[in-house]
Write a structure and sequence with these properties.
Helix 1 crosses helix 3 and helix 1 packs across helix 4. The strands form five sheets. A seven-stranded mixed β-sheet has the order 3-6-7-9-10-13-14, with no helix packed on it. A seven-stranded antiparallel β-sheet has the order 4-5-8-11-12-15-16, covered by helices on one side. The longest helix is centred in the N-terminal third of the chain and has 18 residues. 23% of the residues lie in helices and 33% in strands. It has 334 residues and is of the alpha+beta class. The radius of gyration is 30 Å and the shape is elongated. The protein has six helices and 21 strands.
Length: 334
């Protein structure tokens, strides 16, 4: 009996290699009309096996550009029966070619694991490779690990990364239109007002920024005690990637101890930072106030205390309007 002859699953055993046998036959170049009819009947009777067949077909399509064509005659059909040994030989040849020729820089997609933190919440994440991540409040991160890469995507917020050394698997953090690559290092990535700030505490990182089309990479290397900043990609704009020395790198990660240290930070950045620790929306009504600088060390969860300091140090009036806080320019005294 032809192993491919359609029968109900209750009437016959299912061969473990049945899907591969059909795949080999249908790609052999020697398919008869009878084969096609039997294949059509087989896939209707075996929808589960046919799904596996389609998966195998997709993998073959991805690899066919680098795999030589299957020589004709590898699968032979004789009057409704298949020479089983030759089919398996053909299958083995195909699979060996597929696995040995498949490019090593194209790993199979790895499922993402998502992490989010709420307002005023700081979360510690231990990754499977031994790396550690401290995720600041109001942050959103996705992690995908494979045998070739360690891919992290920071969609919003801030995170401190302590990376386990693995020279065979680059550790890459994607933030906005750029990425940070490190091997055995510690660095902080902060997204604020559509700008990304990378501060290196230990080791070396490579930061690459792309334009709005994901092209024209701009690359800088940062070492311990240095910071790289770059702006988001917007049509018509050309924000540059910049490198500078940081006098006190530890200030960038004071948030892990519940502190916010502002050393000449712009008021718009200060407002976004404290917004990670309060449910109350805070906005700046006067555009001219956004560029003002603030200095000081504050309790991250003492929103009212920080606002009081802003009002005392800067020409700013704090107004509570319903469930919102507005920063206005302080009126001059007549």
């Amino acid at each position: 009996m032809n192993w491919f002859t359609t029968q109900k699953s209750s009437d016959r055993p299912v061969r473990p290699d049945e899907v591969h046998m059909w795949f080999t036959l249908m790609n052999s170049g020697e398919v008869t009309a009878e084969d096609k009819a039997e294949f059509a009947a087989w896939r209707l009777e075996n929808p589960g096996l046919y799904e596996r067949y389609k998966t195998l077909e997709k993998k073959w399509d991805m690899a066919k550009d680098v795999i030589p064509p299957m020589p004709p005659g590898l699968a032979e059909v004789e009057a409704g029966s298949m020479k089983y040994s030759k089919v398996l030989a053909a299958l083995a040849a195909c699979l060996m070619i597929f696995f040995f020729v498949r490019p090593t820089d194209a790993p199979a997609p790895s499922p993402h694991t998502a992490y989010q933190t709420a307002i005023s919440q700081i979360d510690r994440v231990n990754l499977e490779d031994g790396s550690r991540v401290l995720l600041n409040a109001r942050s959103d991160m996705k992690v995908a690990m494979s045998t070739l890469r360690r891919d992290i995507t920071l969609n919003e917020g801030e995170a401190l990364f302590s990376v386990a050394h693995d020279k065979h698997r680059p550790f890459v953090v994607k933030a906005r239109n750029g990425e940070v690559q490190a091997i055995g290092t510690e660095f902080n990535v902060d997204i604020r007002n559509d700008f990304v700030h990378v501060v290196v505490l230990e080791g070396v990182v490579k930061v690459t920024r792309y334009d709005e089309n994901g092209e024209n990479p701009n690359v800088l290397i940062a070492r311990a005690g240095e910071e790289i900043s770059y702006g988001g990609a917007h049509p018509g704009k050309s924000e540059k990637i910049a490198l500078k020395t940081v006098a006190e790198p530890a200030e960038a990660v004071a948030w892990q101890e519940g502190k916010l240290i502002f050393n000449g930070d712009k008021l718009q950045d200060v407002v976004e930072e404290i917004g990670r620790y309060t449910n109350t929306p805070i906005s700046i009504a006067d555009e001219s106030l956004k560029e003002l600088s603030l200095y000081g060390i504050f309790n991250a969860r003492d929103t009212e205390g920080i606002l009081a300091a802003i009002s005392s140090a800067l020409p700013v009036t704090i107004e509570h309007r319903g469930e919102e806080i507005i920063l206005l320019r302080k009126k001059a005294v007549a």
